[in-house]
Amino acid sequence: MFENADALILARIQFAFTISFHFIFPAFSIGLASYLAVLEGLWLKTGKQLYLDLFKYWLKIFAIAFAMGVVSGIVMSYQFGTNWSVFSDRAGPVIGPLMAYEVLTAFFLEAGFLGVMLFGMEKVGKKLHFAATCMVAFGTFISAFWILSVNSWMQTPVGFEMGANGQFLPGPSWWDIVFNPSFPYRLVHTVIAAYLTTAFVVGGVGAWHLLKDRTSAHARKMFSMAMWMAALVAPIQIFAGDMHGLNTLEHQPQKVMAMEGHYESHPDGAPLYLFGIPDDREQRLDYAVGIPKASSLILKHDLNAPMAGLDTIPDDEQPPVAIVFWSFRIMVAIGFAMLGIGLWSLLARYRKRLYDWKLLHRAAVFMAPAGFVAVIAGWITTEVGRQPYVIYNVLRTADAASPLAAPAVATSLLAFVIVYFFVFGIGTWYILHLMRSTPHTGEKGVKRGDTGPIRTAGFTPGPTQDPTGSGGDGTLADRNKAADRQEGTTGSKPVDLWGDRGQPDRREGDGQ
C-alpha cells in the first residue's frame, strides 16, 4: 500500500509524530519541576502542611510525566541514524557535541538527584532534599538550553565551516554556535511556554476540585497560584513572542511571510490577516479578513513600512503556507486566551470571588490542555516554516534523508503510532487518574515497592510462599518453627530469622 508513497514525506511525518509526543512531556515537566521547588520552598519557609501535601501530590504526577518524557526522547535519537543518516553525517561535528553536553550536564544532574527527590524525603535532611529538588528543576532548564541551542542553530546556522567532504565543521568559537542569533529569543519563549503550560494544568486541576468542593484548601491554593502565574506571565510571553517574531523576520523572512499569509508584497504597509484560506498553487489568500497596515505596525512599528511577500521568493524556496499560517494563529489565539483567563482571575480576586465564580472555574478546566496545544502549534510553525531546509539556507531536507524505500519507513511509522498510542495513552490515563483524586492532608507522595529489591542470596520472604517446607504459609511463626527444628531448640524461645526490619538477623553472623 506504500509502494507509491514518498519516503521523504513519511520520514518527516514519523519524526513529527514522535517529537510531538515527546514535546508534550518536557513542556510539562520543565514547569512542574520548578513548581515543585516553589512548593517545597514555601513549606520550608512557612511550615504549613498544605504546601507539603501539594508537593507530594504533584510529585507523583511529575514522576510519571518525567519517565514518559525520557522514554519518548530516546526513540528520536535513533531516527537520526535510520531516517536522517545524511543529516547526522554532515551536521554531526556541530550537532553531536551539543547533544553530548546536554547528556553530560542536564541528564547526569537530573539522574543524580531525581532519586533523592522522589524517595529521599524521609532519608535525608529537609534542606538537602530541597537542594535535590532545585537541582532537578535546574537540570530540566539546562536540558532545554542545549536542545534549543541545537534547534536554533539549525534555524540560524553560524560559526561553522564547510569541510572538503561536505561536513559542517565548527569554527574557531563554539560560543558563536551555541549562542546563535535566534537562540536567546527561542529559549525565553519556549521556557515561558513550559511554565504557562504547567500553570494551566495546575489551575485546571484546582478548578476541577473547586467545582466539587469550594471549601477545599488544597484546591484553592493550587488555583490561586496558577492564576497568579497566568496573570503575570502571559503578558511577558506575548512580549517575548513579539521579540521572537522580529528576530525571525530578520533571519528567516520566508517564515514570517508564510505566518502572515503575505503572498504579495505591500510597498505601502501590509495588512494583518486574521483569517483566510491560503492557496499555494495560485499564490493568494482567499476569503481574507484583515486589518489594513497592522502587520507593518507590529513587525516594523510603522504603519506605512513596506513588507516583502512570497512573490519575491522562488517557488522551491517557499514553505507550505497553509500549515504555517494556521498553526501560528492557533498559537497566538491560545496565548491571548491565557491572558484573558489571567485578567479574569484578577477581576475575581479583586472582588474576592476567586473561589466562587463557577464560570471562571469551568473556563480554567477547559483551558487546562491549552498549553500543550500551543507548544505543539508553535513547534509546527517553527519547523514547517523552515522548509524546504533542515539547516536553513544550507542543507535541504530532501538532501538530508537516508536512502530508504517508502515501505520500510512506513512500517516503522505504523509501529510507532501503535506503540505510542498504547504506551503513552496508558501513561496519560494514569496521570489523569491521579489528577482526579482530591489532594488531602497527609499525602503519601511517591511510594517505593513494599517488598524492596529482589534478593540474590539468602531467604526471600513472600507472603504466600512456604520457604520452610513445613506446609505453612511462610509467616514469621512458620519460619521460627523451621529454625527450631534446624537448631534442635524445640520448646525454647523462637528465633526470629528476619530481625526487627524484615531482613536476615546478622548480629551473630549469617555466613554471608
TrEMBL record:
Record field: transmembrane: 15-36, 57-78, 98-121, 128-148, 187-211, 223-240, 323-347, 359-380, 413-432
In this chain, the stretch annotated as Disordered covers 440-512
Q: Which Pfam families match?
A: Cyt_bd_oxida_I (PF01654)
The keyword tRNA processing appears for this protein: no
Which segments show compositional bias classed as Basic and acidic residues? 441-450, 476-487, 498-512
Question: Which UniProt keywords are present, listed alphabetically?
Answer: Cell membrane, Electron transport, Heme, Iron, Membrane, Metal-binding, Transmembrane, Transmembrane helix, Transport
Main subcellular localisation:
membrane
* Entries under InterPro entries matching the protein: Cyt-d_ubiquinol_oxidase_su_1
- The answer on whether this UniProt entry bears the keyword Amino-acid biosynthesis reads no
Membrane topology (UniProt): Multi-pass membrane protein
Protein's cellular compartments: Cell inner membrane; Cell membrane
The family line of this record is:
Belongs to the cytochrome ubiquinol oxidase subunit 1 family.
- UniProt-listed PANTHER family: CYTOCHROME BD MENAQUINOL OXIDASE SUBUNIT I-RELATED, CYTOCHROME D UBIQUINOL OXIDASE
Query: What name is this protein filed under?
Result: Cytochrome ubiquinol oxidase subunit I
Q: Which organism is it from?
A: Croceicoccus esteveae
